[in-house]
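Lay summary. Proteins are chains of building blocks that fold into shapes, and those shapes determine what they do. In this project we predict the shape from the chain. Here is one chain we studied, written as its sequence of building blocks.
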Amino acid sequence: MGRVLSALITIAIASAPAFVAGAYVVAPAVTTTAATDSGAKTATANLTTTQQAATTTTANTATTATVTTAGVTMTGNGAPSGAHYNLNIIGVSKDKTATMTTGDGHRIFVQLNGGEDAVSLNGKLANQLNKVNKILLQPAPAGESFQVLDANATDSNGALFQLPADVSATWTVWARALGKPGGKSNTTTCATTAGVDGVFGTADDEIVCSLSTLSMERTKGKQTFVNVSAELLFITITVDPTANTALATCLGVTTTTDVTLSLFNGCLQNYFWNYDNQGLKLLQLRFYPKSAVGG
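And here is the predicted shape, written in a compact code that computers can read:
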């Protein structure tokens, strides 16, 4: 069994998207609305660390966010068939006060009606960020995988979610909206730039949010999963060498252009999902290895 799994991992690595230093792509803004379902059971299958493929990316890598799903075995709810990591983002009407940093859950709590429009965050100083309804993202240490490190996004610290460092190259993520019909949410991948001084961790660090936003709505009837990897595992930003020389230099960009980067690309830091909630009670995410979906 171990030899078979190792072979599958090798195939997954070989089939991961090519990363070319200095390359860039123009990606259209993508808005996705879930189809629908009323009451599916939550799958909480954990993946072992041996199911993670090891891929190295360079700091100035830009890549497309295309995921191939042709020939994939799908379940009745629209998701691929097979082992996966399950994460529930739960909207609550009352802020949580309990400590939620035990790292043993598959859920994150957000305000049922709260958060900010991602457009309003662009250009804001990073040290002024309001972390309510923000899901902070960090790469997992070697040998570790997905884990909720802080499940409470309703407080001033925001939530904290750990993903494999190479998640964009080796995983896909699928989503569906559940709960009472009528709720909506917008999730946008954001990060920080080094600012004018070109040094991360200083007072002029600025927030930049993706041009692509995942928009989900709980409509009536059956809810099915859709592939949202392009919105949640990548960030598409406009890079202007005049306005942000350090970022443009890091990416090898010489003219103003839209660039799509994978999560944890070193030219940006402090990645997070900005969760603008308008009454959606449950956004269910499932992470599948690309090898399981033919990527």
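What the prediction tells us: Residues 125 and 206 are 5 Å apart (CA to CA).
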